[in-house]
Amino acid sequence: MITRLYYRNGVYYNLNCNGNVPNHAMLSVGYGSASGNYMIIKNSWGTTWGDKGYVFMAKDKGDTCGLSKFASYPTL
């Protein structure tokens, strides 16, 4: 978690990120492949965090920080 606190830009990948215990919710809003495959994730900490409030999380490199383990969606 610590390295994500200081994320500023680029495609984020941390082999040691523990995704077994979720402690924060974020919203997946898209994907890209300019610098390798990544998911565009919106954080709730405002535009001063990360890349204007977003993080570009590496995709196809295993379970990046538990993102694929704890996905959810609303039902109405």
From TrEMBL:
GO molecular function, one term: cysteine-type peptidase activity
Source domain of life: Eukaryota
Family per record: Belongs to the peptidase C1 family.
UniProt cross-references to Gene3D superfamilies, sorted A to Z: Cysteine proteinases
Boundaries of every Peptidase C1A papain C-terminal domain copy: 6-75
Protein name per Swiss-Prot or TrEMBL: Peptidase C1A papain C-terminal domain-containing protein
Signal sequence residues: none
